[in-house]
Structure formats: structure tokens, C-alpha cells
Amino acid sequence: MNIQSLRVVGTIEGISFLLLLFVAMPVKYFLGNPILVKYIGMGHGVLFVLFLLVLFIVCERQKWSIQIFLLGLFASVLPFAPFFFDRKLKKLQQQQDQTSSQ
């Protein structure tokens, strides 16, 4: 697992969260059809757990502080926040690439 893997999983998890909140939930409550919540919710739950697992592994391998893990955890429960966390990860990835190329 590397930073790029974390970024990909985080982006997919963030998209699944937005689909759950802004597509599946309105369909359930405004149209009375809960089927999308069942499937999108299940997918989002799996992606959420996967994101936390990958976040933990990458934090351990990169020897990042607990603050970065907590920032990722916090970002994963707020709409749109995973995309801001991804910008942080991109900066960390660029720093790592610069360090390894020297």
C-alpha cells in the first residue's frame, strides 16, 4: 500500500458518500424507494472500512503522525472533506517523490 492507493480509495469512498447522501437518501425519503440506500449504503460501508484500513497501513509505512490519521478519519465522515484530504495527501506524495529522487 502506498500514498497513491490511499488517494484512489479515498476518492472512491468520497464519491460513494456523496452518492449516498445526495442520490440514495433523497430517493428514499422523497420518492419512498429505499433500494438505493441498501446497495449504495452497503458499498459505501465497505469502502469506508477499506479506506480506514489503507489509511492505517499507509500511516504506519510512511511513519506519519497520529494527526494525519485523525485528519483522514475526520475527513471520511464529512461530505466533500475526503477531497480536501486528498490535496493534503498529494502534497505529502510530492514531498516523498522529491525526497526519493534526490
From TrEMBL:
Keywords: Cell membrane, Membrane, Transmembrane, Transmembrane helix
Topology versus the membrane: Multi-pass membrane protein
Compartment annotation: Cell membrane
Location, primary (coarse class): membrane
Record field: transmembrane: 6-27, 39-58, 64-85
DUF3817 domain boundaries: 4-91
Top-rank taxon, per record: Bacteria
GO cellular component, as recorded: plasma membrane
A Pfam short name: DUF3817
Protein name: DUF3817 domain-containing protein
Originating species: Acinetobacter shaoyimingii
Lineage, opening ranks: Bacteria, Pseudomonadati, Pseudomonadota, Gammaproteobacteria, Moraxellales
